[in-house]
Amino acid sequence: MAVNWPGLVSIGVFYIVVLGTGIWASRKSKREEKKCSGNRSEVAMVGGRNLNIFVSISTMTATWVGGGYILGSAEMVYNPTKGLVWAIAPMAFSMSLIIGALFFVKPMRSKNYVTLMDPFQEKYGNKVSAVIFIPALIGEILWIACILGALGGTMSVVMNIHSWLAVIISAAVAVLYTLMGGLYSVAYTDVIQLSFITVGLWLCVPFILASPSSANFTVAAVTKLHQEPWIGRVELEDTGRWVENMLLLTIGGICHQAFYQRVLSTATDAHAKITCYAAAVFCPILGIPSILIGAVAASTGTHI
Length: 304
Description:
Shape: globular
Distance between the termini: 28 Å
Number of strands: 0
Number of domains: 1
Number of helices: 13
Radius of gyration: 21 Å
Strand content: under 5%
Largest sheet: none
Mean pLDDT: 85
Order of helices and strands: HHHHHHHHHHHHH
Helix content: over 70%
Low-confidence stretches: 220-227
């Protein structure tokens, strides 16, 4: 297959910037080890509990706003049997962050926990915590697979390369900078990635809306016979599944180790709560471009 060289160069520059940021952050992590009263693993996992508020908000937002979130939201709006009302991730993740800030931030931080498993280990012992660690591990693996799958699919379209190659390269870069700097590298590269996502998505929107090949999705809200509108609807028999999906994402987000890692990495309880509330605002905002793209695609498809 013919490689899209401009796309390859742009993605290459992106990875160089991300890897360079990760290496710089790893050096910052080593300097932080000397100032932190905690052990080395605590610096690696929760950043010495002193991430600044801007980085904390960025990495918390980026925890939810990834490839699966962006492509999944657009896909739901585009899907003729689903529509906007089924694109529940922006609202569910926002609710998850708010609930987490209200009820879980202070208890988790009060005892200086490092992971989600710590309170269970303290309460029920090592054997029980080892068992309940298994579903948490499976959830993380599937979450990573979702993100890498979305990334591979995107790169295969943009650069015209095999998706498996994109997944391997992306995973290798992420593992490398994480091993070098722990949470510091992850957090600071999240700032870069979130910046690219925000600018890139919002740059795409006006071009898509102004394209002569695109239909006006505001006019095409009701489409041809037997075709659901992009707004979608929830039938009575589907209400239970809609509620289940909403609860799955909302409550599942509260059970996410990455959420507590960010919460525990801030300097104070107030900073942790501000991080959650700010991310709860930014997550839906960053979902708007995906929704608009899905709506235009659905409207265009019905007029071809």
